[in-house]
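Protocol step 6 of 9: fold each sequence in the batch and record its structure tokens directly after the sequence line. For illustration, a two-sequence batch is reproduced in full.

Sequence one:
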Amino acid sequence: MTYEVGQVLYVLNAESMRVVPIQVVEQVVRRTIDGEKVSYRIVVPSKPDSPLAMEKIKGKIFESLDLARKNMRQNAINIIDVIIEEAREAAAVAFKETNDTIPTSPEKTPEDQESLAAPKEKLAEVVELPDGKKVKVNLPTSVDEALSPMQN
């Protein structure tokens, strides 16, 4: 991607699940015999006097808050769709439901299909408690896992 000096971008930090604004403060162009390489230096609101190399930023970078919002919504929809699909499959197995009796979900995009086919990873969320402590909460990745505390 190409950015302009002074441009404000937004980083979705996967660890904290926050969107952090950054500003491009420097563009560095290196020309060598092998070609040209462009890199950027940015600042974050908490350290405006300490530019960082953009490559060191962990997270997905968006050019607008609207694009960040759309990405976050799509990620949430994908997670919800996986949970719903697992519930549908569990109902079909446990209660001998057929696909004819289980309501179908809205039309899926190719990205949705990809997310359903992807291996199921542990989902984690960082939550800030009222006293300011941050804790990591593991979310269930399957219906069986979600119901297991209820079965004890």
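Sequence two, same batch, same settings:
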Amino acid sequence: MTARWACPTELKVRTNIPAKAKHDFMPPIGATHTPDGQAHQPSRDRFSRDEAPTMLDCWRPIMFNVFFSYSTKDLEVVSPIRDSVQAMGSPVFLAEYSVKPGQSLPERIDRAIRSCDVFVLFWSQNAKDSAWVPQEIGLAHGAKRRIVPVKMHQGIDLPGFIQNRRYEKLYEDPARATYRIKKRIAEIGNAKQANEGLVGVALFLAMLGALGRG
């Protein structure tokens, strides 16, 4: 069977691959395979084993809300990443597209941040100078949202209360950084879904217990 790499929207896996050779089968980013197993569109970058997409990463639906905090001056860079994340099934709040004419921008942003599961910060000098982004960070921090920082260029420190957090370096390798952003979002979303599943099971068992006592 021919294997084709198209995660996260599509993945077909070649069968009968020896366990010791599985990591050797991992293609470069964006590569496709022909029946003879040769990779095309090679890249010098390969995912490390802990970064490799799994069937779970690629097929599990990610049904939760993501908020992108950014400067409108960086929209051209941020917008394609938003499209890529939404392809996983996660609605992304991007003010440029998510606020409809006539709606209150501050109210929509406030509501979107408080209801989001992941707050992705695209940090740049433009964002630092923005009248909106620092306020959005403070609101997300106060609401205890999960913050994923992304540095868009070198020479700029993260805001004080998140400066010690690990961040993605979009300026070094945009493709790899985008993949890692999506992976982190998927990890947070899957953990939330698993927790909600446990809560649902507990409630179901409690209901059965109550019916049994009745």
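Proceed to step 7 once all outputs are recorded. Observation for sequence two: Residues 1-35, 39-47, 52-61 have pLDDT under 50 and may be disordered.
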